[in-house]
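BUG: 3D viewer hangs when loading the predicted structure for this chain

Environment: internal workstation, default settings.
Expected: structure renders.
Actual: progress bar stalls at 90%.

Input used:
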Amino acid sequence: MVDFDQPAQWHRWLVGDVLFSCLGTTIRAAGSREAQWKVDYTYQYEAARTALAAGCPTLVLVSSIGADPGSRAFYTRMKGQLDADVQALGFPRLFILRPPSLIREGSDRFGEKAGVAVLKVLNALGILRSMRPMPTAAVAAAMVALAKGAPSGPRILTAQEILTAL
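Structure tokens produced before the viewer hung:
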């Protein structure tokens, strides 16, 4: 098990050609906004910084639809700040995926499941199609495809671009 609060214990493992970063939690599971920030922002940022310093040229990061460091909403502000800060690190190859709600097999999160169900109904009515929930398997497949063959440079992918990266 990795203790992200002890980087001296895990930094040596961040050596390679690609860092796939998709760590995250909820405020409810974390217990506070500060604790969620630590997981969703700090741990991922420190892993990215450490991997780049070790020579890793590629970061593939899962963010969120609506990510914006200037957002009034905590979650999208946090994700937007992470996006901005990893871009500033200067990875030669950086892919930031901004999927909509994720469909996670076996999820026990009531709010997540309810949100996906509501979006599916709205999508069936032709409403909010750009926010169509996406299976985590599709995001994972896009991450691998990007790491294997996409060109250099920073790139932020919307939901539709994630699906076309497959």
